[in-house]
Design brief:
- With 165 residues, the protein is an alpha+beta fold.
- It has two domains: 1-50, no CATH class; 52-139, GMP Synthetase, Chain A, domain 3.
- It is built from four helices and eight strands; from the N terminus they run E-E-E-E-E-H-E-E-H-H-E-H.
- Strand 6 and strand 7 form a beta hairpin.
- It is globular.
- The protein starts with 13 loop residues before the first strand and ends in a 10-residue tail after the last helix.
Length: 165
C-alpha cells in the first residue's frame, strides 16, 4: 500500500487508502500490520474486513490485554492466559456511547490478585482516551450485548444521494 500522507518528516500511526473505482475494500496499515477494512462500499455492496467500530473495539481489547499482561509480569502474578472481548454501543436517547468490556483471567490467581488485574484494566491508555467520550463497563466473563451497527449508522448520515447519471 502506498503512503501518500507520509512525507518522511513524520510517520502516521495508521493509514487507510482505497481507489474510488477499484475494489470496495479499503486497505489499512498500522505499524507493520496491513489489513482490509470493510463495511458498506457506497454502491450497495459490502466490503470484506473489519469495520471501523470493530477496529475501535479491537484497539480497546488489545490495549486492555496488554496492560493486564504487563501488570501481571511486573508483579510476578501467576496469570497464564488473558482474554478480552469488547463491543461498542450507542447511548440510548442521545446518551453517552459505551464500550462493554469482558475480561477472562486464567491461572492460579488469588482473589486479591484478580482484583489487581481487573483494576489494571482501567489504566489501559486507549481506554482512558476513549473514556473521555464514552463509558466503559467491565465484567469478568466473555459475554457482550448487541453491538452498534456501523452499516446502520452510515445509512443515517444526512448525506444526500446524488445519481451520477
Amino acid at each position: 500500500m502506498t503512503n501518500s500522507i507520509d512525507d518522511g518528516t513524520r510517520r502516521p500511526q495508521a493509514v487507510v487508502a482505497g481507489d474510488l473505482n477499484g475494489a470496495a475494500t479499503l486497505n489499512g496499515r498500522a505499524g507493520a500490520s496491513e489489513f482490509s477494512i470493510g463495511g458498506p462500499d457506497g454502491r450497495g455492496g459490502m466490503a470484506t474486513g473489519a469495520n471501523p467500530y470493530e477496529l475501535l473495539s479491537a484497539s480497546l481489547a488489545a490495549c486492555t490485554a496488554m496492560t493486564i499482561r504487563f501488570e501481571a509480569r511486573r508483579r510476578k502474578l501467576p496469570l497464564s492466559h488473558v482474554e478480552v472481548a469488547v463491543s461498542f454501543h450507542h447511548g440510548v436517547d442521545g446518551g453517552r456511547d459505551s464500550f462493554e468490556r469482558s475480561i477472562k483471567l486464567q491461572g492460579p490467581l488469588r482473589e486479591e490478585e484478580r482484583a489487581q488485574l481487573m483494576q489494571a484494566a482501567d489504566m489501559c491508555p486507549v481506554g482512558r482516551s476513549l473514556g473521555l467520550s464514552a463509558d466503559i463497563r467491565t465484567n469478568d466473563n466473555i459475554t457482550v450485548g448487541r453491538p452498534a451497527n456501523y452499516d446502520d449508522d452510515l445509512n443515517e448520515l444526512p448525506i444526500p444521494y446524488i445519481d451520477a447519471d
